[in-house]
């Protein structure tokens, strides 16, 4: 079946097939990590819809919305290669009315960790995701564990609003040297890329420990030895359901998360640790 490109709700209605539908929301600039999401979706649904939309609501005023990579031809080809049924590629005008007033609040969790560094970011994420859920009507939606706080908030939104959608998280895909795949990696120079490896090294060091204090200390030690070009925003060890910092007495799964700027490029990464 040929790939269908839908631009609005009426296109989506015409394109809808029989059986279970999986949605893979993206902002385009697809890479191997996105392909892993698509493959996970294909294994669980008869029809896979990939949305490609650079969402202005989740970018702050001094962030990279205008220069975020837009590679539509390459993205469509990747979707064809992966057997995607429908690409939903709406315009900003289709997604948001000019006088839009109502959105989704991400609550307390949306103000923590990444939300503290990017105020309003998760409100924008949840608003666009909820709109995509309404427009596409999926049975299943697939997201990457790399954006762990986003994934946790989407799970919370689905639970709190009683949405009849299964949420699947897919493990982070990494380069052979450990760098987590990201559309923003293309901003990195060769030198920047070497510096960026400090993030995954710190996470590996922390993940090798067995207590919260030791996890934090091991990861921080790696970051403290990183080149000056690495500007750390945060390093946290948090409860995966709430994204609040875990106490030193904590036992169970936790997320060790880091964010930093390398040059002008801001990167995030995380790993799940068992304590």
UniProtKB/TrEMBL annotation:
Pathway assignment: Cofactor biosynthesis; (R)-pantothenate biosynthesis; (R)-pantothenate from (R)-pantoate and beta-alanine: step 1/1
Active site positions, chain numbering: 34
E.C. code: 6.3.2.1
UniProt keyword annotations, A-Z: ATP-binding, Cytoplasm, Ligase, Nucleotide-binding, Pantothenate biosynthesis
InterPro entries: Pantoate_ligase, Pantoate_ligase_C, Rossmann-like_a/b/a_fold
NCBIfam families: panC
Assembly with partners or alone: Homodimer.
PANTHER family recorded: CYTIDYLATE KINASE/PANTOATE-BETA-ALANINE LIGASE, PANTOATE--BETA-ALANINE LIGASE
Name the record gives this protein: Pantothenate synthetase
Protein's organism: Nonomuraea indica
Gene, per the UniProt record: panC
